[in-house]
Design a protein that fits this description.
This protein is an alpha+beta fold. It has a single domain, classed as Winged helix-like DNA-binding domain superfamily/Winged helix DNA-binding domain (Arc Repressor Mutant, subunit A), CATH 1.10.10. Helices cover 36% and strands 11% of the residues. It has a two-stranded antiparallel sheet with strand order 1-2. α1 crosses α3. It starts with 24 loop residues before the first helix and ends with a strand.
Amino acid sequence: MGTSESMQEKPTHNGSWDDIPDLPPSAKLVAKVLEHNDAMTQQQIADESLLPNRTVRYALNRLDEENVVDSRFSFSDARKRLYSLNIK
């Protein structure tokens, strides 16, 4: 019995700047904003980058696919997530 592609787990390696060149410009901008800040909410990233919320959400999803961004729940407001860059 073989494993199907849908059963494969997401790799757990840290991302690198080498993972980013093929991403859209919005994802690169979000990565740069996160590089200069510890942890930010999606709204804070949108405010800092001047990108629409929807574009920031798309960029964060693309960065997450490349394992270059981490997210966790905010202790001050559990409805929000904090994002930080995961590039070593």
